[in-house]
Structure formats: structure tokens, C-alpha cells
Design brief:
Elements: E1 3-6, E2 9-12, H1 21-35, E3 40-43, H2 58-90, E4 97-101, H3 104-108, H4 114-134, E5 140-144
Parallel strand pairs: 3-4, 4-5
Antiparallel strand pairs: 1-2
Helix pairs in contact: 1-2, 2-4
Length: 166
């Protein structure tokens, strides 16, 4: 495992597919094996395949749901199993964190994004439920819902200019 040092911190790269359940497990195990613990899990994987529902292909619906929801669920599943084992062994709250990423589209909808808005609404519900499930282990779960002008939002009609294209 190559440890990368940037801006005063250290990280390891993983090229696993977060929507591949076993791959997500390997990613969580890599973090625990490298650092000896898992303090924070941020689930931020996302794609768009925008189209009005009458033009949307089933494959585009499935791809967005898979990346956003299963790509969040799988790493959280493996992290929760790890934290549960740690909690059983120590009997103490773990103090770990999960941060998920939702979107205004998931809260109020957005034309041409039945797949994306559905996925992001699912993130909100998942986050609330996960917080209830992990609370007694001392794991805090929150969602952020940023608004940004990014490469992903630039694909939307009438989107603002991308602020930092790279």
C-alpha cells in the first residue's frame, strides 16, 4: 500500500468500485489494515444520466441508483460491521463518523433527474436510519447537501458556469 502525503495529511488510494459489495469491503479493510482503525467514512460517489423520464433508458436509471445508493450502502455496511466488532470488544463508544452527500434535487426534485433525485432522496432516508442504527456504538451519521457549480452540475440546462473545472 502506497501512502500518499499531501497538504500535511496522508492517504492511501483505492481503486475499488464502491457499488461492488466485495470491493467496498476490501476498501474498508484496506483503511483498517493501513491505519489500524476507521475513524471517518465519507460516501460521496455520484454520477448523472439526465433525461426526462419518457426518454430515460432503464440502464441509466439503474446506473445512477447503483452508484448513489449501493455505492453508499456497501461501504457503510462493511464499516458498521467493523465498528460493531470494535464496540463489542471494548464496550465503549467508538466516536467514528459517517458523512453522506445528498442534494437539493433529492429534497425538492429536478426536471430530467428522476433517477438522480430518487437516489439523493434515498441518501437522506438512509442517513437518518443509519444514524439510529449506529448511535449506541458511538458513531455519528450526518448528511451534507452542498450546492455547487461543478462539472456534474454543468451538464444541467441553465446551470451556472463551473467555478473550478478541474
Amino acid at each position: 500500500v502506497e501512502i500518499i502525503e499531501k497538504r500535511g495529511g496522508e492517504a492511501v488510494a483505492s481503486y475499488e468500485d464502491v457499488a461492488d459489495h466485495e470491493g467496498a469491503g476490501r476498501m474498508v479493510a484496506q483503511a483498517v489494515d493501513t491505519w489500524g482503525r476507521l475513524d471517518v467514512l465519507v460516501t460521496n460517489a455520484g454520477i448523472v444520466r439526465d433525461s426526462a423520464i419518457w426518454n430515460m433508458r432503464e440502464a441509466d436509471f439503474d446506473a445512477v441508483i447503483n452508484v448513489h445508493l449501493k455505492g453508499m450502502w456497501s461501504p457503510c455496511h462493511h464499516a458498521a460491521r467493523h465498528w460493531r466488532e470494535v464496540h463489542k470488544e471494548t464496550g465503549r463508544p467508538g466516536g467514528a463518523r459517517v458523512i453522506t452527500t445528498t442534494s437539493g434535487a433529492g429534497l425538492v426534485g429536478n426536471f430530467g433527474q428522476t433517477n438522480y433525485a430518487t437516489a439523493k432522496a434515498g441518501v437522506a432516508g438512509f442517513t437518518q436510519t443509519l444514524s439510529l442504527e449506529l448511535y449506541k456504538m458511538g458513531v455519528t451519521v450526518n448528511a451534507v447537501g452542498p450546492a455547487a457549480a461543478t462539472r456534474i452540475t454543468a451538464t444541467m440546462p441553465n446551470a451556472p458556469a463551473v467555478i473550478e473545472p478541474i
